[in-house]
Amino acid sequence: MKLDVYLFDKKCGELYSTSNNGVVFEYTKEYCEEQNNIPLSISLPIEKKTFTQKECIPYFFGLLPEGEIKQQIANELHISETSTLKLLEALGGECAGTVSLFNSEEKYIIPKSEYEFNDENYQLISNKEIADKILNCTKTPILFSDKEYRLSLAGAQQKIALANFNGSWYIPKNGAPSTHIIKPSRKDYTDIGINEYFSMSIAKEFLRDVPKCNILNLKNDTDSFDVFCIERYDRQIINKNESIKIKRIHQEDFCQALGIMSTNKYQNDGGPGIAQIINLIKNKSSQPVVDVQKTIEYFIFNFLIGNCDAHGKNYSLLWNNGIKLAPAYDIVSTVVYENLSRNLSMKIGGHYEIDKISKSHFIDTFEKCGINRRIINKTFEKFYSKIQNINNVFSNTPIAQKYNLLLEKIIIQINKFIQEP
Questions:
Q1: SS3 string of 2-29?
Q2: CATH for 250-418 (2.40.50.180, 3.40.50.300, 1.10.1070.20, 3.90.420.10)
Q3: Mean pLDDT, to the nearest integer, of 285-303?
């Protein structure tokens, strides 16, 4: 099997299986010779060579959903969940960033650099229909509920990508991009979407770049429930002369950028650590000083909120007029769930256990990355000053009142931060 790989509206290469060497990738001669093209990934620089399976699969594998969702989709397709090419063929129309993949032996619609909001590209969907899709996801994964809508979103959680214009929801068609991601709650953690909403809303008080998010109440004939909804930071909406156009922005997570399989996203499984992420930013970012400071704040905030699942796939880079750190995302206070691990995804000062880590461990870790301790101290001081305002973030909003016990647990975790030596 051979897949044509597109970035924006350009065919950049081909991903195909070989009889002896597994899956390999090659950029096209034209893409290599054309000026100002960007690579798929830092780990796959534009070169006229054949990238081996070891070199290319971490990037492409990282586009796919993980865990039970991936297995459900594979079962629906009657293929092995290890069949990366077949999964990408089925799901690769709408991935993170600007990449799209198509079976080279079949007819397909070539992607555009931008899409206009019209009936050809977007189909109206009611809140009731969204609710029905989500409630049906135990039978059919949401990502695969419309076979014409070839959607792949990395991660282990159910989600649906839709577009929102003027307050109404739409299913993208003909390769058009989505603008929002909706995440229903999980059966095992029924309030995790609310947790993410609280955590991301609090993050806006501490961090510079946090996407807009909200809680959407969905109803059908029998049920009413809340879901987490977030704007996609890898999409750009342009209002031009009474028309609306949508563009994709290329992105990759740090596992992809470092050529690490998403199955190894945790540091103790071979995934990225703080030093690897900071070194990559120093060497590749178009604004390294700004992005190193943002990264420091991301790491400290995830510790503050008690997010032990901030692994290498939950930090990303955007390719948009240079390479920049992406906004913060997938922030959840995992420590409020007693049965979840209290080990961080990345080691700080030689420790994974969140309860053993203090400010001095951050200073030790960042100093080894060449960062002056004054910068770390100033960041901690800024965070200390902002903690006092946390109770005002939600100011008795209906959602805070409805889920007040969960919010209290998160605030208790944050207040522990002040007590750190």
A1: EEEEEECCEEEEEEEECCCCCEEEEECH
A2: 1.10.1070.20
A3: 98
